[in-house]
Design brief:
Chain lengths: 89, 173
């Protein structure tokens, strides 16, 4: 039970951090809603701080793929195709 | 003037391009003072080896680190401002102290493990993630660049976020 509760809090915190990153679509209303949730329980705030930290660290990962090279091979293969079949190359 | 070669360290590249990196930070945090703080923080992380492998485009990576630290800075500031409107003592907010060597090391390990988790994803997902999180494009621009629907971009980014979220155990209290 405690674990389930913990997972739910984490998931909510992680969702807030993701939404918050999309700054153009995260208005004052969303922010107030988020802070209301954060203040409701110290565990919420704790999970949020961890989620924000994980989010930041993910932003420090160096690129794992060369986007320009990917675009080139993709254009050569088929410009229109966005099907998953080009993923296994 | 430093002359940079392919053997230059990330730290050298950072120092040589400091003015441009300050500009990147200032566009996000708005003031020169804050931009200075962000760039200093970014430099420490990079000089300490934020990532320990060779990076193909060192300046691109320096910009990425500065941008993400600046965004984190803004996030914290906006949160603080909203806490104030709730009449909450902002002193209670989590303010990360100076990074201890121990923390720097754990962060570096965490970055390496997140990288590993991301590397397991499909190339398409990694491209979407990179354009969104590392280069700061909007999802709409990514759809245009990748030549696919906005809905798909949204799903790809969600997939990458899911893989990162699964690494929550890396973040200790």
């Amino acid at each position: 039970m405690a674990q389930e509760q913990d997972d739910l809090i984490w998931r909510t915190a992680w969702d807030w951090v993701r939404r918050e990153h999309d700054r153009e679509n995260f208005g004052e209303g969303s922010r107030v809603e988020m802070v209301t949730w954060l203040l409701a329980d110290p565990a919420h705030r704790k999970a949020y701080d961890k989620a924000a930290r994980l989010w930041l660290l993910a932003g420090l990962v160096p690129p794992t793929i060369d986007v320009d090279a990917w675009k080139k091979t993709r254009n050569r293969a088929s410009p229109e195709d966005a099907a998953p079949s080009d993923d296994d190359a | 003037m430093l002359s940079l070669t392919s053997e230059s360290s990330l730290g050298d590249v950072f120092v040589a391009n400091r003015a441009q990196l300050l500009h990147v930070a200032r566009r996000i945090v708005r003031t020169t003072d804050l931009a200075d703080d962000v760039v200093q923080d970014a430099y420490l992380r990079i000089a300490d080896g934020a990532c320990d492998r060779k990076v193909d485009k060192p300046m691109g990576y320096c910009c990425q680190v500065v941008r993400n630290l600046a965004l984190d800075h803004c996030r914290r500031q906006s949160l603080e401002a909203t806490y104030r409107t709730f009449d909450v003592d902002v002193e209670t907010l989590d303010v990360p102290g100076p990074a201890s060597p121990d923390r720097v090391m754990r962060d570096r390990q965490a970055v390496g493990l997140i990288e590993k988790a991301l590397s397991a994803l499909s190339p398409r997902t990694r491209v979407a993630f990179q354009l969104y999180r590392l280069e700061g494009l909007t999802q709409r621009d990514i759809a245009a660049q990748m030549g696919c629907a906005l809905g798909l971009v949204n799903r790809l980014i969600a997939e990458a976020d899911e893989a990162i979220g699964a690494m929550r155990h890396l973040i200790k209290d």
